[in-house]
Amino acid sequence: MPISKCLLKSEPLWKEWDQKAQKNGLRHQVYAVNGDCYVGEWKDNMKHGKGTQIWKKKGGIYEGDWKFGKRDGYGTFSLPDQETGKHRRVYLGWWKGDKKSGYGIQFFGPKEYYEGEWCGNQRSGWGRMYYSNSDIYEGQWCKDKPDGEGMLRLKNGNRYEGSWQRGMKNGFGRFFHLNHGQLFEGFWVDDVAKCGTMIDFGRDEAPEPTQFPIPKVKLLDPDGVLQEALARLKKTEEEEGDRCQLPPPASCCSENTQALEEIQAHVTYCSDRCGSCGGARGTPGSFGDVWRHLWLSQLAGKNATGTSWVEGEDPIKRATM
């Protein structure tokens, strides 16, 4: 008895062609519509594994790891140099999701580069930046700017150690003026030293020491004075608006004794403090308020008591008696 067999149905030719067209494994040059070229490994029609991408528009070249169509892993990125015509490395390090992430080195110029941590194409974490003017910053970064604790070493050897915010000195820090043999320690706001102490530091070994050493300031409570100045800096604008206003010059007052009492109302005097200024101590800036009032009175040709100025008389001492 004859045996009949069923013929197997053959696959449509388009499926076979489509399977051959799928990019998997190592492929040679594959060009995109815009002219970009990729040579390397593929998986499910996506760049996956080791490969090299060449961008036609900017001439950039990436060599390294890929994952599902994006740069992911370790790789280097190069750009053509307009002067030499050759490619120079711009970045070498780790990538994640097509962005610099992890440890890497970025070259901004022949003598300017950054080495450290990255996150989302921005310098973030610990890093060291070498500037073209030979300055070096080493410390913490956030959103591509120095932020946190860090040290800036200048070309002349001077350095700053302390807090940073938004790429500027902010908070407590120390600035070593090694060329002059001095040390400043205090509080900074947006790269400006607001208050602190300056002392001699290695003045004998300094290449350009100051002509005279810093005299010693004898205060009973220097820490208290510094804390008082810091408290003033940290006041909000609303609190500063509540500060009392200066009284008008004594020449405009009807009663001279009343003008002197108004000045004294702004200052608390301590007899055991510095004798040259009468020991003025009170709210931050009280001594400046007295001086400003006396200066305005001097412009009017009168002193704080309403009488004419006496040549050789100390107006501050007179006002604080």
From TrEMBL:
Transmembrane segments: none
Record Gene3D superfamilies: Histone H3 K4-specific methyltransferase SET7/9 N-terminal domain
Assigned keywords, A-Z: Cytoplasmic vesicle, Repeat
Annotated InterPro entries: MORN (IPR003409), MORN3 (IPR052472)
Keyword rRNA-binding: no
Pfam families: MORN
Entry's localization field: Cytoplasmic vesicle, Secretory vesicle, Acrosome
Function per UniProt: Assembles a suppression complex (suppresome) by tethering SIRT1 and MDM2 to regulate composite modifications of p53/TP53. Confers both deacetylation-mediated functional inactivation, by SIRT1, and ubiquitination-dependent degradation, by MDM2, of p53/TP53, promoting a proliferative and cell survival behaviors. May play a role in the regulation of spermatogenesis.
Xref: PANTHER family: MORN REPEAT-CONTAINING PROTEIN 3
Name used for this protein in its record: MORN repeat-containing protein 3
Taxonomic lineage of the native organism: Eukaryota, Metazoa, Chordata, Craniata, Vertebrata
